[in-house]
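Key idea: predict the complex, not the pieces.
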Amino acid sequence: DQQVKQNSPSLSVQEGRISILNCDYTNSMFDYFLWYKKYPAEGPTFLISISSIKDKNEDGRFTVFLNKSAKHLSLHIVPSQPGDSAVYFCAASGVSGGSNYKLTFGKGTLLTVNP
Amino acid sequence: KAGVTQTPRYLIKTRGQQVTLSCSPISGHRSVSWYQQTPGQGLQFLFEYFSETQRNKGNFPGRFSGRQFSNSRSEMNVSTLELGDSALYLCASSWISGQVYSPLHFGNGTRLTVT
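Result:
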């Protein structure tokens, strides 16, 4: 049972445009959400997070939106740059895991930003 | 500050053998988690250690075990290797325990190939 779902395996965007990556979750006990970026042969790199008490968090070109009623979050990258090309993972954590250090990951979305 | 260091980077073993992977967390980080990444399953949680104690465990067989030392360094062991254990094994560290969330910082992983 996949509790965190990234339904788009890939996304292609033109440089300078907006990239929108989506993530859905099923476990209502999740209350902390993160986005990670991963390049080949490297570990995931933390990008941005959001707590369930917020509906938006912004960090430079990256903004995460959380819609708790829909159990949906999205990552917006504006403007997109070729260096943003990577696999993006959505992850969630919550008290149901017994520890806030157990992250449940989606399967990732490969973002390609074309020059 | 040095990041999470995992050794070795690559490992080739045969079925039935055992393997030990090593992880040195970021200085000051006391929580260490392990994840398995495979193309089909994405990133899956193995276990998490804090102050030499396993606090949380994922749904993996008992062949997968780990430990944490007093200096927060951690090792993961897989016994009686199977072909399906071929994966990228990622270690992540975090600086705080308790109910305040903090992101995990990942190493670059150990690529294990079982033949």
